[in-house]
Amino acid sequence: ASTLGAQAAQSGRYFGAAVAAGRLGDGTYSGILDREFNSVTPENEMKWETTERSRGSFNFGPGDQIVSHASSHGQRVRGHTLVWHSQLPSWVGSIRDANTLRSVMNNHITTVANHYKGRIYAWDVVNEAFADNGSGQHRSSVFQDVLGNGFIEEAFRTARSADPGAKLCYNDYSIEDWNSAKTQGVYRMVRDFKSRGVPIDCVGFQSHFGAGGPPGNFQTTLSNFAALGVDVQLTELDIAQAPAGAYTNTVRACMNVSRCTGITVWGIRDSDSWRSGENPLLFDRNGNKKAAYGAALTAL
Ligand code: XIL
Fold first, then answer.
1. What one-character-per-residue DSSP string does 184-235 give?
2. Ligand 1 site: residues with CB under 6 angstroms?
3. Nearest-CA residue for atom 7 of ligand 1
4. What is the pLDDT of residues 110-151, one digit of tens each?
5. Global pTM?
């Protein structure tokens, strides 16, 4: 096939992009989006600071714009994200009472997941909950510090009740290298969840890489997680300077694992990227295909 989405679909996978609602009116942007991609992830529009900026007052306008664009163009939607320590309004971060925070967290998950019920392929239920310090433990956050270790499990159970049709993912960065304490910490959590029946269906590997691309054991990491009985997905792929070979290696790692169900790049053109100074994406500022585009398409 001649596009990323159509080629990925030939093996039952999707190829997606992070999308900003404010750019949908740019014809070059939406032209590439609708030609190449069959999945979208709202880059910021479903984050807590947007969806519930003040307690109990929900704003679904920007997220709805993306979901309605996706549904009219045959694109699936990855929901991003229900519980995250970042882009979190300060009123949540200042809660110190566990019962209050538990009810605020569960109400947020229930209200957002219920609003989008039936239109979300997979939710990043919890994002970036593990520490970078080599401990393999959860990072400090208001959720961890006030609710304790059980907050992740509680979030997944609440999300399952709210939208039983969506796949529920744990999503994080720097868990691509099998030989890292953070990867091992997430692996132990997923193994524990599966053994106790906590509802988790997938793990998202953000895949924000340096110019060297993925670690050599990335495919091993993906297949080890898949062996626990979850799907795996590359959820926020971008690679500094976008070397073609690094994109080839990344896409191959997913293609070689049957439960790797799809890949999302974190933006369309380099100018759209949160790392735009590093030109990490598949299309240049004018919307032209880069060498990395051809590499990714060939590897699918
Ligand atoms: C980034 C967005 O791309 C930026 O526009 C925003 O200013 C900050 O967040 N991990 C994630 C994403 O899970 O939500 C982040 O997205 C990038 C890192």
1. HHHHHHHHHHHHHT----EEEE--EE-TT-S-TTHHHHHHHHHTTT-EEEEE
2. 43-44, 127, 206, 236, 274
3. 274
4. 999 999 999 999 999 999 999 999 999 999 999 999 999 999
5. 0.99
